[in-house]
Write a structure and sequence with these properties.
Radius of gyration: 12 Å
Order of helices and strands: HHHHH
Distance between the termini: 36 Å
Number of strands: 0
Low-confidence stretches: none
Length: about 80
Amino acid sequence: MNEPRDVRIKRMKMRSMRRGIKEMDIILSAYADRNLADMDAAGLDVFDALLHENDQDLYQWVTGQVRPPAQFASLVSRIAQTFQK
């Protein structure tokens, strides 16, 4: 998919807001609003892949209940830190 950067960011922000469980809507949309515009293409790729994961898994990863897969560990850590400040 050869999507323009601005369209891609808008799509990911929308996917961040409309998850399945309200907690993940709040967490991911806040992170997306604060960070997507400054991410490079590789960072956007990882965030985009994260958006395809199950909400219950994401919630457990972000809250530290379960260790996230290695490919998402750094991103999940940054997302979790956003709400510890």
